Amino acid sequence: MNTRPQWAASGRLPGLPRFWRFKAAARIVRAALYKTRWPLLILATVLAGGTLLFWLAETHANPLRALLYVLNLVTLQAGPDDLPEPLPLQLASVAIMLGGLLALAGGAARVIQLIGDPKERQVAVVSMFSGHVIVCGIGRVGYRVVNELLEFGETVVGINQRTDEEWLDHLQRVGVPVIIGDARRKQTLIEAGVERASAIVACTSDELTNLDIGLDARELNPNIKVVLRMFDAKLAEKVSRGFNIKTVFSVSALAAPAFAAAATRARVDYAFKLEGQLLNVSTVTFEPTSPFIGKTLEQIEDELKCAVIGAWSSDGVQLRPERSRVIRPGERYYVVGDLKAVRALNEGR
């Protein structure tokens, strides 16, 4: 089964700017500047301090000439004959030369490290993020979660231990940074910007690993929203109650209503439980012979104790249509209700 979304084939998300690659490149440049900020600050201090020193010492006629002399020192263009006569200024010239060279070498080393190490590039990009969502475990479930978050307009950072997942390349190609590492290590979470993130989704195939990730994330960022994928409904309930992690989803608890509803004769698109009550989402197309033709949405909702959440049209889905709207033959609506209401609407009785 192909789990790739439609945008993966084009390499660009719906609504993503046409020149998004240039924006991604600009983000890399900003990350490089951030990573080399200390060498750049040292170099700027050396240039400014040297220029001021030689101008005030009156070895050069104006600040521009003093700056050119300092630049020649840093780039090794100045020879022994160019050094000023007083010994203190000669020593200062040597110190400026060494300081400038060390700053340049440090900056160059950081840039080379950034270019040569893919993980360093990802970490550098993430360092520019704030308020993003971290998804741990880019498997089949994690990949789908990332897709949905991107559709919601969220900024996403992925963490995955393996490098051979087929969808990692697709995500990185559309600008989603993926940190390769063990999400159970606090350092990996820090590299993913957990201290600045708004939420973290732990959706690996091991529920204890997910719990470990969630607790570490909460320790590093007490305000982060933690979403855990779990398989045991009882454990999920205990985790939610015992660790104050409100968003815990039991896979079995989520899947069971959908399986049960699908096994009935009712036309159910989705099913879920709300406060213990099974609710179903159904697409209802009203036939000309339906007894509901001519009634308003308000009348149907009051009669069947359901909720009409959307109406289909050529322009797309209209959410929460007017309750005074009258049902006409061939119209399509999206309804939430129990199985009795869903059956009545679809079977016209």
TrEMBL record:
Residue ranges annotated for the RCK C-terminal domain, each copy included: 269-349
Membrane-traversing stretches: 38-57, 89-111, 123-143
UniProt GO MF annotations: monoatomic cation transmembrane transporter activity
Domain RCK N-terminal as annotated: residue spans: 130-251
InterPro entries referenced in this protein's UniProt entry, alphabetically: NAD(P)-bd_dom_sf, RCK_C, RCK_C_sf, RCK_N, Trk_Ktr_HKT_K-transport
GO process annotations (BP): potassium ion transport
Keywords: Membrane, Transmembrane, Transmembrane helix
Gene3D superfamilies: NAD(P)-binding Rossmann-like Domain, Regulator of K+ conductance, C-terminal domain
PROSITE patterns linked: RCK_C, RCK_N
Record's protein name: Potassium transporter TrkA
UniProt organism field: Candidatus Thermofonsia Clade 3 bacterium
Upper classification of the organism: Bacteria, Bacillati, Chloroflexota, Candidatus Thermofontia, Candidatus Thermofonsia Clade 3
